[in-house]
Amino acid sequence: MPKSNKVIVSCAITGSIHTPTMSPHLPLTADQIAEQAIGAAEAGAAILHLHARNPEDGSPSQEPKHYNLFLPRIKQSCNAVVNITTGGGLGMTLDQRLAAAKWAQPEVASMNMGSLNFNISGAAAKITDFKQPWEQPYLEMTKDFILSNTFTQIERGITELSENGSKFEFECYDIGHLYNLAHFVDRGLVKPPFFVQGVFGILGGIAPEMEHLLHMRSTADRLFGEDYYFSCLGAGRHQMPFATINALRGGHVRVGLEDSIYISKGELAESNADQVAKVIRILKELSIEVATPDEAREMLELKGADNVAF
């Protein structure tokens, strides 16, 4: 299939890794999530990767009622593609993780392409006074935690969400996850074009080394040929370097407060829009064109914003 040379910028607005104590700018309420998502879209993000939070304490939530507080407002206020997580919050059941995407029937849903050790406990050691009682145990339990997405779980998620026309952001935390995706491609359960998101820098997944980025891309080239688009995210301080290198090699980028709460060394990002604006400024300085939401829809062959359930 013909490939566009424009870069799709995704923005992950809040996620389920960072906790309220880590940054006063992390969006937690429905109003904050909506405002920051709309701001990111206005700054140039084509895709908004969305999690919900419990408005009472900022903890991760996959309840459709919490998504319903901000999804209609986002849809009414901008043209960005909505991408809803099926990873949810750490420790959730598969039913909980799938609930929001099954209800919302978005254009895109994320899909973790395998199970892995997922250790973010180091963040707890840097904090002495937590704002919410759930934060410290949530972080520290990941020393003995496996983020589960077995072949059976992946197949169920793909099958149930495909029924509503949703396509996927295939999140690959290691090289083996690309081969897991190829397994489902070979079985005919997913159709091209594939939107692959390489995830670098989570303890338990592939390390944030540029050699690994090149290896993951060359492996994906062998497995999927011209049938995929490769985006990547670098966690924490690796966010902008990985975005830049991947874009220079014809790939796509993801930024957002889910992946890093900083805008530069030691400086907290005040909004998701700030990170989007920064990466787009870098891309433009390198004479790289940025895709609009509708161009991203065409590239990824999405069903369109009129065909979602919110």
Describe, in plain words, how this protein is organized in 3D.
With 310 residues, the protein is α/β, with parallel strands linked by helices. It has a single domain (9-116, 146-307), classed as TIM Barrel. It contains 12 helices and 14 strands. The chain has helices at residues 30-43, 64-67, 71-77, 94-104, 122-125, 135-140, 151-162, 175-186, 210-224, 239-248, 272-285, 293-300; strands at residues 9-12, 47-50, 52-53, 60-61, 81-84, 108-112, 116-117, 146-147, 167-172, 194-200, 228-234, 252-255, 262-264, 267-268. The strands form 4 sheets. The chain has an 8-stranded parallel β-barrel, surrounded by 8 helices. The chain has a two-stranded antiparallel ribbon with strand order 3-4. Strand 13 and strand 14 (267-268) form a beta hairpin. Helix 1 packs parallel to helix 3.
Strand order of the largest sheet: 1-2-5-6-9-10-11-12
Order of helices and strands: EHEEEHHEHEEHHEHEHEHEHEEEHH
The number of distinct β-strands equals 14
CA-CA gap between termini: 31 Å
**pLDDT averaged over residues:** 97
Discrete helix count:
12
Radius of gyration: 18 Å
List low-pLDDT spans: none
**DSSP helix fraction:** 25-40%
- What is the H level of CATH, i.e. the homologous superfamily? Aldolase class I
The CATH topology name reads: TIM Barrel
How many structurally independent domains?
Answer: 1
Major pleated sheet: 8 strands, parallel, barrel
Q: Tell me the overall shape.
A: globular
- Helix/strand class: alpha/beta
CATH architecture descriptor: Alpha-Beta Barrel
CATH class wording: Alpha Beta
Strand content: 15-25%
